[in-house]
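Quick check before the chapter quiz. The format below is the same one you will see on the exam, so make sure you can read both the input and the output lines.
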Amino acid sequence: MNAILKRRFIDQILVMFGREPKKPAAITERAVKAHELKRLTNKADLQALKAHQRAHEEKSTKWRNRRWATLIVTNLLFVVSFYFDVQLLEGALTASRFVGFHLIDLNSALQVMLAHKHIITNLLIGTGTVLVLWILLGGRTFCSWVCPYHLLAEWAENIHLWLVKKKLVTDAPIDRRLRTVFWIVFALLAVITGYTVFEAISPTGILSRALIYGPGLALLWVLALLIFEVFFVRRAWCRYACPIGLTYGVVGIVSPLRIKYTLDGCFHEGDCRKVCLVPHVLDTVIKGRAVDTEIAIGPDCTRCGLCVDTCPTGSLKFDIKGLSRLM
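Here is the expected output.
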């Protein structure tokens, strides 16, 4: 990895922790040539692209449909296993057992060990399989492909954007560094109180347990979060508070599965950033920002596939590092 790409990799990690994306100080020679060529040709090509899009209004939802189906089926497996008392997928998302293999959420295990103030061997064993899984798939894949709150927040975001379009509410983003602050706060609370405070208010755990064992008063907290996201700050919990996303983002730093951006075919029309659930990870698609002709999107990417579905030129695609592309 040359110095420019190494610097870009470090920048992507810092962006995950809340730093705002910046224009790169240096780019590779081949990227310089690509940017220069695009400055000479992009305007006419972009006009042609927009005309083509108007003629073909229907956009692909292939990856979105696959993701929703996977998320719903995964959570329903918990419900079916409990309801019919079969040893398929027992427990809930925070701690479960799949055909005998123990699976423990990494953030939950960390919270428990911080609360008990020692390393618990059984928790380490249970997190091993989960750790390997999310290293391979990209940590924040959990957020968009498994987490039940993520799906509700995605639907709430659509309502919020509709209200913004009607000028009934305003879109008010918050400083993303707040998520890192919350991660530290919840960790300190676990150490100080000896109690896993985050687990008590985590909408992921609340929804998972409610689906399996039945609803409780804790769902009112989830409802309050969704109302706040609809009328005030879209995706407030996932983007600015939830430590699970940050934990899995760190796990996925070295993941071979990623979204890869190819500069040459991109017209920088910006539709991908409009649909992205974490648009700061796509700063590289902004005209003049790509440091190389091919760039892996950063570890805070949820691999949701919305940008892949939306990109009209195929400049954003799923890719496995060192292997052939998925599509």
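If your answer matched, good. The first strand starts at residue 89 and ends at 91.
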